[in-house]
Amino acid sequence: VTCPNCDSLLDVNQGNLSYLKSLTPSPDQPAFVAPIGAEGSFKDDVKFKIIGAVVRSVTFDGIKYYWHEYLLYNPMVGFRWLVHSDNHWNFVEPINPADVAQDNVFAAGGSVTYNGQKFKIFQDAPATVEYVKGEFYWRVEQGEVVRAIDYVAAPLMLSQEISPNEINWSVGTYLTNEEVEKAFAVADLPKPWGVGPNQPFTGQFYYTWGALPLLALLAVAVLMIPLAGITRTVFNQEIVLPAFAKAFSENDPGQIVFSQPFDLKGNSNVRITAGAQVDNSWADLDIDLINDQSQEVESVNAPVEYYSGSDSDGAWTEGDKTTDATISSLPAGKYTLRVEGKWQNWQTPMPVSVKVEQGVNRGVNFCCAFIVLLLVPIFGLFRKWSFEAGRWKDSMFGSSSSGSDDSDE
Length: 409
Known about the structure:
There is one protein chain. This protein has helices at residues 177-184, 212-228, 364-392, 398-401, and strands spanning 8-11, 18-22, 39-42, 46-60, 63-74, 78-85, 88-95, 100-102, 111-114, 117-134, 145-153, 156-162, 167-175, 232-241, 255-258, 262-264, 270-276, 281-291, 297-311, 314-320, 322-327, 333-343, 350-358. The protein has 409 residues and is mostly beta strands. The longest helix is centred in the C-terminal third of the chain and has 29 residues, at 364-392. It is 14% helix and 46% strand. α2 packs antiparallel against α3. The strands form 4 sheets. An 8-stranded antiparallel beta barrel has the order 4-5-6-7-13-12-11-10. Strands 15, 16, 18, 19, 20 and 22 form a 6-stranded antiparallel β-sheet that branches. A 4-stranded antiparallel β-sheet has the order 14-23-17-21, with no helix packed on it.
């Protein structure tokens, strides 16, 4: 027991009070957050009382890192621990060492298995008792050192403590500030900083539920194929533009030919494909789709050019002899094409093939929607990667364990 007045550590074994030593707390250690005597409900609403508190530390590169361990007691259940480190909390329970399967690798890649779950090694360092207050069920001593090995599988952490006389195993369950505040009926606990060793990642929504719109998009795409029907050709004709009588200028009109009338159905997109017999030359075509009833006009430009040749690298081609343009659905009715064109070899007639199709299945809209919807899962995966990197950067074995879902205290 620690005397609350003089900080003396006393032994009350078998009712005989004896003085052990006076405690000297380190001036740079953090203050206890929870008071001795506070009561809180954990695990199936079992009420525990804080009867003791310990400051412990590990030292890396000459720097001490502190955390607090609160001894909890319930007469019916026994002793448990509440661990507070970097304002992260864990409820800790002892477990039977026989339930832990160990690979005895205390380095990067080391692991243990408990209840069928694999835990990765996070830390292996000597832990020192810096200060105690309250009462304990064993003879705790300031300066006492044990080897502490932590393994993580968020939200759990397995801890092994090895002393000259015994080996103890315990399992800690990560608690949020809200859960600790609710347990003790308090508010405004200090906010945690960094990522706790066994803090669970809570952003799965972005790459699990966030992926549902992608699946819905794929389902709609599959369903739309039979619903929209197969692309059908409603008009296909070769027309001939007559030769020019003289060379034309940029502002001169082109040669004009009208097609035969044809019918379009409503609520279905329209693709116009034009082809010209060009070879190392060009043709500039303007195609008007005219509604014979309303005289409304939908215009598309269809430039065609094709060049070929060979050089030191071999044969090459550029351009294409056909081009197409797709427009949204038009009112049902009878339509006629007005084809106006100019071409490089204006002295000769220009044969032009024109095809009109409806119900064209295009992948552009699908791809755009897919890319936009994919941003949410990608953002979620990036958050997870960043979270796990933050977890393992404080581990002795972080370089080998980054990207895992597991952690430590």
